Amino acid sequence: MNSPCKHVGKNQRTLSKSLNGVVYAIIFPNNAKAREVHAKHIRCIQCKTRLNALMCACCKCSTFACLAHIHDHLAAKRHLFAVSVETGFIYCYHCGDFVYNHEMEDARRDAENGCRRSLNLSTRSIWYPGAAVANICHDDPARMVRFSKSSIRGLRGLVNLGNTCFMNCIIQAIVHTPHLKDYFLTDQHHCIPSSSHRKAQCLMCELANMFQEFYKGDVTPYKPNRFLNLVWTHARHLAGYEQQDAHEFFIAALDVLHRHSGSSSLPSTPNECNCIIDWIFTGKLQSDLTCSICGFVSTTVDPFWDISLDMAQEVLRSPNSSSGSLQQITLEDCLHRYIKPEHLGSNAKTKCARCETYEESTKQLTLKTLPMVACFHLKRFEHSRKDRKKMDTKIKYPQFIDMTPFTASFRERSTSVPDNRTSIVTNLLTTNRNNCESLGDDGKWSLHVLHPASTQSVVSV
Q1: Whole-prediction pTM value?
Q2: Cα 338 to Cα 330: distance, rounded to the nearest angstrom
Q3: Which structural domains are found in the chain, ordered by start?
Q4: How far apart are CA 164 and CA 170, in angstroms?
Q5: pLDDT digits (tens, 9 = 90+) for 208-266
Q6: SS3 451
Q7: Strand, helix or coil at 384?
Q8: 343: Cα separation from own chain's centroid
Q9: How far from the centroid of its chain's Cα atoms is residue 312's Cα?
Q10: Residue 389: its H or E element
Q11: Residue 277 CB-density burial (10 A; 0-12 exposed, 13-18 middle, 19+ buried)
């Protein structure tokens, strides 16, 4: 059934052409180049925000803007429709709301599934209720639940089973992870018992049951005793009622869920898993070792489930220039320290493949592939010879974070820019001309007058 909006039906042919031609190709990219365009260019033309859940694209001219400013754009340009960058749903200017059209929804779903297939994700389908379901809903309207913006469905307390607050915070994070919620509430887990576990011992099955318990509308505290027992069974080093580390429990739980996910599909590439846990939580970390003698770079790439960050004490101890107080540490500060090049001294020499000898080197970590959900682990313990001390420093978490500066591709683009000093030295030493031209970033040519200079003064620039 279509929404009451009549404007989509009247303009369906031109709207469909616009959506299929340009807009969906950007919103649902199905190749690396399209994903790069999506990441670079989708920002509000007015307020310049990028990470906005209500970002929209004009269906007529592909102008990107947040919901407030896209309405102004449609009014000024007399364009009729926009589309949500996040979902692909159509926004009608005259109705002032997102509208539904059956034919447009089929095209939107096809574009979304093309994007999901390119990422090796399962495709989405629409469930149409049959006559029996329709009759039940008609005869008993109380059985139909309509969620409001203020709905608390899914919010449920957990009973502390004796020093299990570390587990409870991890469970709350897991059951409110959107991708996992979609996976389990659409019944996509099909238990495949193996030699390592029986169906009665499957942690994935228990997690599926837990999602049902959280989202069925009950607000009484839930007792996760079976989940705890299964983790103890499959990760015996955590068994016992003493206090445990939440991060250690999280990694152990992910490992058990990964082993019990029972992915029946073959990985697209060797040594890669297609299970839901790896799809959501696994990223790739790139480590570059640069030889201090010849400059040869040795690169290794490893999967990760979490990013362990130091507390960036050098940032903490730097006084604020205006007030003299200490600066507050942000998550970005910790990430910048994480990717900062580290010189490995004479006690940690590595064998250079080019020199074929053990030499000092510089190590730098970058993120090769980002996971859908990133877990940041803050190292709050400072170790010394005698004891260890927990740092209670507050870390500022932004609502949104741009991870581009911490990726391997960003570093490669930054270091691939040619060193202008080399060309300057070459030109000055080989030419007798006393002027030159250059093209600036603004696209304008400039004429420069050259004056005699020594080689040393140019190299030191």
Answers
A1: 0.61
A2: 13
A3: 7-118 (3.30.40.10), 165-276 (no CATH), 288-415 (3.90.70.10), 420-459 (no CATH)
A4: 10
A5: 999 999 988 888 999 999 999 999 999 888 888 788 888 999 999 999 999 888 654 44
A6: coil
A7: coil
A8: 29
A9: 23
A10: strand 388-390
A11: buried
